[in-house]
Amino acid sequence: MLRTIPVTSASADAALRARSRWRGPTPDEEGRLGVASDVAEAFREVLGDAAYATFKTYVHRFDAHAIPLDGPFGLIHHVQRLLDSAPGTDRRRKQALLDRFVRVVQESR
User: Fold this and answer.
1) For residues 89 and 42, is the Cβ–Cβ distance under 8 A?
2) Which positions ≥6 away from 59 have C-beta within 8 Å?
3) Cα 24 vs. chain centroid, distance in angstroms?
4) CA nearest 85: which of 94, 76, 96?
5) Per residue of the chain (109 residues), what is the pLDDT tens digit?
6) Which segments of 1-109 does DSSP mark as H helices, in order?
7) How many angstroms separate the CA atoms of 2 and 21, rounded?
8) What is the Cα–Cα distance from 37 to 100, expressed in whole angstroms?
9) DSSP state of 6
10) Which residue in 17, 30, 25, 32 sits closest to 108, CA to CA?
11) Which terminus of the chain has a smaller tally of CB atoms within 10 A, N or C?
12) Which residues lie below 8 Å from residue 77, measured CB to CB, with a gap of 6+?
């Protein structure tokens, strides 16, 4: 004889999370990932390999909640400093890149 196990909302939520982990990103998530990867590639081109590695470190620290978004020790300030030190790129392009970066970060929150 088979017994049915009552489904609680907690177990149903856990099942949905497990399924969503394996199904891949939704079209909306894919769009955001595409924009984020475009911004990351633009940073790689502007900063060069060494500064890009530093950029990635700052982003990982922000993702781990080790640094805030704003303020003198925040992600935006660190990225601004990296862009300011990048040679061969005009101020307008640096500002446009920083604006795109801030938009991507704020949309992913």
Assistant:
1) no
2) 75
3) 17
4) 94
5) 555 555 455 555 665 555 555 554 454 554 455 678 999 999 999 999 999 999 999 999 999 999 999 999 999 999 999 999 999 899 999 999 999 999 999 998 7
6) 9-23, 27-47, 49-63, 75-84, 91-107
7) 30
8) 12
9) P
10) 32
11) N
12) 70, 71
pLDDT of 15 reads: 58
Cα–chain center distance at 92: 23
Burial of 42 (0-12, 13-18, 19+ CB in 10 A): middle
The pLDDT, as a whole number, for residue 59 is 95
pLDDT given for residue 36 in this prediction: 86
pTM of structure:
0.69
Give residue limits of the domains in the chain.
27-107
- Which of 76, 45, 38 lies closest to 58, judged by CA? 76
